[in-house]
Design a protein that fits this description.
The chain is 41% helix and 17% strand. With 570 residues, the chain is α/β, with parallel strands linked by helices.
Length: 570
Amino acid sequence: MVGAEGAGVREQAAKNAPSASRNARAPGVRRPVTLAHHKALHALGLFCVLLDALDLRRGRSDPAKGCERLYEPRCTLEHGLDRAVREVAHPAIDAQGAGFLSGGVAKRNALHAASHDQAPTDQDRLLHGLSRSPRDGAAERSEAMVGRESFAACAPALSGSLERRRGPMDRPLSTLLNDAQKLLPEAVALRRRIHRAPELGLELPTTRAALLESLEGLPLDLELSPKTSGVVATLRGSGPGRTILLRADMDALPLEEDTGLEFASERTGAMHACGHDAHVAMLVGAGRLLASRRDEFTGSVKLLFQPGEEGFGGARILIDEGLLAREPRPEGAFAIHVDPTLPAGCVATRPGPLMASGDLLSIDLLGKGGHASMPHHAVDPIPVACEIVLALQSLVTRRVDAFDPVVVSISRIQAGTTANVIPASAHLLGTIRTVSEQARRAVHEGVRRVVGGIASAHQVEAKVHLVDGYPVTVNHDGFARLAQAVASELSGSESVIDMKTPVMGAEDFSYILRGVPGAMVFLGVRPSDREPAPLHSNRMVLDERALATGIALHAAMALRFLRSGIPPIP
């Protein structure tokens, strides 16, 4: 189909064209390639680039491979344009779009045929709207101008045609956020139900019951942990492929809630102060969203609902039960943790160490008790304990690389019973945080050395107990960059924060990241109606509207990973 403006220009060009006799040439003699030919070919090359750009914009093509994913051409004037026409120039394109193609790709074919001593066929003329008589340079330039005008008019139609020709797998990720918004009321209701009935540790029967009820009706293969309240729900796509693990923790903290919320904890001494109720709600929403798009991906998504993150090592127990070994085996892992100090909807992460290791430090000092008025007859462990606390801070600042951060905090000292008695013993309890295994081992050795030396100097017996807690949470570089790119695509680059330093809290998702490449991100949920309180505060509240971003991000990460895997690290 030919555009009306293009037809008018061709008619005028035919009237102004020189006679055929003046352009006659002997058989076998090539027609010289003119400047007009070069300009036309250059315009066609730009058209090929346009097609690639439209394809990249919609996420179909791999930027590292140019247009290979959609067209798989050698994107040159000789091959790429012809194939592009076969892929795109369909009856769905309207008259203006066809006019643009006729003024561009088709004309290149005619020029190419003429330069090789082959006249355009009647089929070429019919498809591409070429005049049967040759034209001079002015006519060529006039049609080129119409071609550009037609392009400006047909660009929306061309874009729509490309979109229609793509399958459901190629829907922009931004559509996930709209779908997640529709699931928000259900997610908020589930989050509040769990928030009212917080449970601690590895056994969370009420929470698991609410979870299983929320998953009813979805095409999931369910596995229940025999040792904990953990649940693994596997969603299979339209065919075999990669497998990704999406994780949410479920347990609460031993705190007395003081938020004043209408859905505040109804259980004494327990509160969801770390946002795990929101994690469950977001992952359930993501499961619903992905189930509605099963035809858009191949492979499997494992939804892990994990108990016992708050100090019980639930992830390690589930790994011991075969979480990472059972088919389909996860090839990547992703988790979201809310942060009430970040603006709602923002996503923050970084490649490499994201969170610290968390080890328990316990020190027992044994001296000799006596009367407080005669300390020289006793061996007082209290001054020794105080000296140890100060010396451990000097260990951090003088024996540890400042660019490999370490925290040693003594958070409890117990000794004595009354004012006039020197106790025989003292007990110190604390934590050690590092962001590298090298620093972790070095600090453990330094603590033993410092405590032993000081105790020996004061004739006090010392016993140091170091219990390895959660290891460093290390994001895979490529996976973290993938998460940042997907979050930018969902919500805009302005909503993504590239963290410059790790957080010194600890996370048992680190055990999973030791087994498979993956990443964790922080999702901002800062409330708009009050002063934000940090995680683990009994006043912590969150902006529930941000849960839609978490739902969409879980689903988007799964779809992108299943389709493309982990991008190469530049």
